[in-house]
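Aim 2 progress update. The chain analyzed this quarter is reproduced below.
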Amino acid sequence: MKQTGPGRRRSSSGKSAEGEGARRRTEPPAKPRIDKSSANDQALDAIIAADKIAALRLAPVSRETEAQLDRYIALLRAWQAKTNLVAPSTLPHLWTRHIADSLQLVDLAPTAKRWADLGSGGGFPGVVLACTMAGTSGASVHLVERIAKKAAFLREAIRVTASPGVVHLAEIGDNVDRITGPVDCVTARALAPLHQLIGFAEPLMRQGAKALFLKGQDVEAELTEAAKYWNIQPQLHQSRTGDGWIVELTSVERRG
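Predicted structure tokens:
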């Protein structure tokens, strides 16, 4: 198994201030209470703007792509009040938690122009990938989503950003076989355990697609479980945006 591997994590801690310094300490400002109904709260604007700067340092994009991503985020915040597209607790970190997390896939498949995003949800990573390829000849992103409200949002996001996306309202497993044309890369984020994702992606991988699956800290356990059903040689890439991992697969073979 090729991997950078979940290894030891360094931790740092500082000693508490003493004496005069301790007496001068003030309590840190309270974090804003964020819920679905406050997605458009102006109090969030400054927080999200600062988060955007941090995210684009992690994953730089062109000015044109940045403008499209701005339109996408504005639309997502407007829809979030009525449709739960992302976890409310992640709203202050939309750019680092969701946008940059999606953008990092581009560097792992720099020549890919045709993508399939399984279980697109709020558009991560599918709409983000489509924004990066707007205006690219031959580019396309298939966004497969089974929930009608989210599929409607995805269609509007593709329209607003003028990105090369096609939304499929269907169950994930039922629709993959019907995606027409070649696919260079298939991806999924927060959709299902790895062994199930491989099953969904297998028809596309048989036709030459590479898989990039965004997973969390429990990736080793998921790989162990997946190896019961599939012969795989995964390569792991540590996420730039947190403790997660990206599982890269170039071929799979069902056991037995």
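Residues 63-80 form the longest helix (18 residues). The first strand starts at residue 2 and ends at 3. These observations will guide the mutagenesis experiments scheduled for the next reporting period.
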